Amino acid sequence: MNRRVFMKQGALALLAMGLEPDFIRRSLLAQTSGAARRKTLVVVFQRGAVDGLNMVIPFGDPGYYAARRSIAVAAPQRGNPAGATDLNGFFALHPSLHPLAELYRKGEMAVVHAVGSPHPTRSHFEAQDFMETGMPGARSEREGWLNRVLQHTGCSGPGCDGRTLADPRAHARDHAVGQVGLAAGSHPALRGVALGAALPRMLQGEHPTLAIRDLERFGVAEGRGGALGGTFERMYGARPKGDIVSAAAEDAFEAAAILRGVNPSRYQSREGVRYPAGEFGRSLRQIAQLIKADVGVEVAFADLGGWDTHVAQGGTDGQLARRLAEFGQGVRALYDDLGDRMEDVVVLTASEFGRTAAENGSGGTDHGHANCMLVLGGGVRGGRVLGDWPGLAREQLYEGRDLAMTTDFRDVFAEVATRHLGAEKIDRVFPGYEVEVRRFRGVLSG
Known about the structure:
By secondary structure, the chain is α/β, with parallel strands linked by helices.
């Protein structure tokens, strides 16, 4: 990360410590209810390499059962509602993902299988970085592809003339005094938000973004009259106008003031919606709250770990099944909580790589290659499993051990970025890569 981005994100991170003087309240707060609805992408990252072969099971491929004698999930059986859900006669959803099966049947969720990175690394850290930067093999790259989307996505409002946000702060100041484009009651830093303790690589870069662990504790209770608030007012007020740190801190303080107006403690999910207990469920619940509050969120990020199942993975039951249940329940709760707002939302799931086709001697799976993604929500032409299936016979496996990649993850990311978020300069979002958009024409309508 370069010095400018480090200082900017460091200043934004001050809010995680509860530093929110209220002297920056502005007219932005007064108009959140009148903001125009916008398209939003929610990325759910399965950090740790989920076993995509047991998540979306290729029960029609005999190689699957030959390679997995103790952890394979049984093929769908008529009259067994607790079993795997048949998708198309060849693939099935793991039983723990039953909450998502209805969305597939309704045509509101699609699966992309045998998708991944062309880079051969089996290092979690490298593979995560490559997927989050959108630049496989570029070890020195630190800017996330979602941040580049925000940098190179023009305004949709009248008066913006399709310009990109080359100077997000100047753009925010324009709109604060009554111009159009960004919704009133919004701020550039709220265009990209991660619900979690740290900002993921996907959102790091020149465009201001925020990491928020808990909306209810984002900011301090101490106001202008308090010693801490007064100290920070003097400290940032004394810095030169236009200084990187003071500008980034002002971004953060303004965003916090807007979020304070949302009143997180009073949020109620839709009747009947139950998020899973824990940080993942809380993150998704607060993403739903931010989207409904119309504070200008265009990209939201949440992740769930615990997928590195080298030992005692299990099949229909066990370690992986429990994690998939939390994942499936959370994604379905987000979907149901948003209700008709899902017309403007796409949820995209991803993981850094898959697992070996064969189970290991410890009843688990090791680091593999290709994997699967889920895409659901507004404009998704679902009810289909997409991508070319390479097969699981030994001669069809990557390096004789892994599911081969037939779809580059950047092709999927690019379609969501262009067709849902409206990114036009896709060559700047994925530098050096010629996106095969044609391959996935039809995942999203429009």
